[in-house]
Amino acid sequence: MASLRPEAGTTIDRATTAPFLLRLYWRQNRQLDPWEFSVAVPSDTTNIPDYSSLLPRDVKGHMMQIYTWPNCTLAELTTLFLSVLPENVIPNPAVGTRLVFKLIFPDTRATIAEGGRGKFIDKPLGSVVIGGSRAEMADDGAENGDVTETFEGDAHKTLAEARFVIGDYVACSVYPPDQDGRVAPMPPPTSRGGFGGPRGGPPRENGFGGSYGRGGGYRDGRGGGGYGAPPPSGDWRRGERPPEGGYDDRRGGGGYRDRGGRPY
């Protein structure tokens, strides 16, 4: 039986191992905060398909669903992400665009706050620069297809290496290059406000949170966060194991799908 938190380096045969569902949320020019995933679950969840359907419109309106595996790299996520983004979200050519990924997940050790909201925290996953850090030197006539194969930063980092737990959300912030063509710097850590918890909160059960170093690389640490309710029936719960046969309740090789179930 597959673990809910597959170890890094584990060999996965994608032809015989069913993928799991990953929800990726994105935003332009600023990060998603953990508290934005904070909603109170109503007492009657009969008609609620999953927790993500309760999220604010401006959050769930920028979401894509991907079926993937623990050895999925940030380069793979970036390629899929770019292939389905609406026009004008990133410049054309995309060279010089920075994508910053992080995990957002409920803190199952936190006490439920007033209003039925539990605590959400985040953990840096990695940063990818399309075309590399010297993207501003590229030919202005380059096409997207010529640069998306060249990623710099944490492109080879896998979900398993980040101690991803099936059911975690992935948030992606999109930073186009500056007007002079230079790659945008790494953003500062997200501020904690509203329902946000203190910096250096308790560790999660699949590892610690963390932060980025000066060059954009990841270093271990502890996450801060906001509050959010535990997911109702229908989502993976941390600590559960997938059914026999793979990471999803489907059988077969899997693939990639958007919100409507249409393959990417």
UniProtKB/TrEMBL annotation:
Amino acid composition bias (Gly residues), ranges on this chain: 207-216
Region spans: Disordered: 178-264
Biased composition (Basic and acidic residues): 235-264
Any one Pfam family match given in the protein's UniProt record, by short name: SAP18
Cellular-component GO terms for this entry: nucleus
Family: Belongs to the SAP18 family.
Protein name (Swiss-Prot/TrEMBL): Sin3-associated polypeptide sap18 like protein
